Structure prediction request, 763 residues.
Amino acid sequence: MTPAPPGAWRAVWLLTRLRLQRLLNVSGKGLSFNKGGKSRPATPGKKRAPWLLGALLLLPMLFSSGNIARHNLLNMHCLLDHVAVCQAKGSMQAGERVLAPVIAHLMEQPFSTALAGALTLQLVLLWLVSLLLPLGMGELSKPDWDLEWLVTLPVDKGTLLWARVLERTLVNPLGLLVLWPGTTMIAWYSGQGWFAPLSGLLACLLLLALAAMLRTLVDTGLRLSLSPAQLGNLQALLSVAGLFPMYMGMSFGMGTGGFAHAWAAAMPAWSAWTPPGLLVRLLNARGAAAALPAALLLVQCLCLMLLGMAMLRRQLRHGVVGAGQREAGRKRSSVAQPTGRWRTGIGTVIQRRELTLLLRDRNFLVQTLLLPLLILGGQALFSGQARDLHELLSSPTLLACTGFFLGTYVLMMSAFQTLNKEGGALWLLYTFPVSVDQALRQKAQLWAALALLYPLILFGAALAWQDAWRWDMAGLMLLALAGIPLYAVIAVALGVFSSDPLATEAAAKIRPAYTYLYLLLTGLYIAALAAGNLAQQLVFVVLTAALAVALWQKARDAIPYLLDPAASPPARVCASDGLIAAMLFFTLQTLAWLLLQGRVAAPLAQVALAFGSAGALTYLLVRLVYWRSKTAGVPRIGGGPASVAPGGGGRDAGGAVWHRLHARAAAARGHTAGRPSMERRVAVGPDGAGRAPVRRIHFPRPDPGRLAPLAARLAGDRHCRRHLCHHASTRLHAARLRAGTVRGSRVRAQRRAAGAHAGACGL
Prediction:
């Protein structure tokens, strides 16, 4: 009997839940919607990025996004409503004491027409970001289109399309990150209090629904009409186009001029009747005045959604297979490329291969070499700072930080993605006549040289701009240039840790926690450049160099495990942990000292409190990470050496080593020795073919004083396996004895000894 197809609402729920489950699996949360069914436990995979690191790095992002949305609203209020106390400096430079009466006055009355128009423009720009960036983040260039197999489900086409729009509305984390803080701040300063996050979320979902409908229309139409090569080029263009509305939407809170503020002041009156304008009026309305904008907003959204669905049905009237990915398998006749193109170039074969791949992939080329210039140029253009270009060229600190950011951003898009760009051909690196770590070292050298181009051009222009030679500027330039090769090594090492070559989803091949960690380390170096103290800068450069070496050594240990789905290097205390802790302590101490300057009068008390708080926080965080990752070899403070007596708890390793040592000694002697003070029976298989029985082994009383040094030496798994179980001749001889192939008068004793050794080593 064929089961009945699911209803419309159940189909929508199942498809939406499928998308949510997919997002959770890709993000590595390990959550599931399954309800306690009994099944065989899966083989545990290798440890991924710890959730604690992701949480610690996500909280600053959320705080930064909310702070930007707050200053966007307040700065537009100061400039457009001509508030005298903050109009000249802007909200970010005015201070909280100056802004307190301004905020109170803003919350007491409705928004002005100019401010409402500016907020409408901001929501439109952020809505474009939620539409363009998901399209430009690899969705168009995927070889598989999930709609091709979704249409095979026993679901009506209309239900399937509505479910697709709904799941793209709910599962859009980037859209939530850029839109939710803005709508929440509008509701907060409209006097809604703690209901503002809920009101902002509902308003954000309305805008995301419209973005999901347009995104589905664009995605479907492009896949049905363009070839895979054209889709790849269009994706590179969309990734660049999405930056302009993002930086323009963020620039309202920075500066006191620029054409972004001029556009906000010149918003026409009819923009208040568009969905973003009605949304601003609805969030700012009080009482019965909210009825009219709410009704108009719902009617407009409903009409736009129905119109979009009608266009989707028309697009799919001939099916879902057009000129899309099916053409990718057909080989076109191509002109033979010259074989000696890079043969005469400078560099190794690995580096010339990397340059060839860079020129072939236009999306990678744009993201690596063009995107950093667009980010800095867009921020300077939209915030009105492009007019102060001479200030950039004359400020040593700002110039060094800008050049260093350009270089490290190039590294984040290139050297950090070294293993990810190999794709399914990563295993070919293991077949090269050079080792994988040597190939990665050559790639790091290439990307460090390319990343130095932009800073060298910028610094050369600045030096040519100066009337006289400035040693302070030259010193900061040298420090910035010295940090870029170090961060090339750090980027490649962190790319090894973050890469998951076995992941099927493109978004899961790179774990974002390590990307945030790289950005955090970059920010620490920029903070050291801006500190102004030469001693602190030199100390941080030395720490960064040591950190790069330690991370590289740790990455070399992880390279043999890249293609293994379950095994990973054992977690042990290493030099990189101490160097990261030192850098964290150095940064926390500086931040604590800056926070205590206005609150604690005595300089000695400031230094003591900063030193103590930074040390305590660093110790707690490092110990928490060790506890979560079950790191071996963590030193104890104030405790003696661990006992090696066989027992439970933390002495399992010592007890296991003690038993293995005495089992090996008993096997070597072939008989029991000493007076037994305790007795253990070795569990072996039943007597049968090829297995010699082991009756009983007597263990003398342990001597912790004599066994402590040896147990501490053999406690590591690698050393224990190497010295106890990795003797090929011993294992072969034991197998021969068990099989009965060794003849002689002492066959019984040899069989007993071989069985005891095999049981001790777990054979």
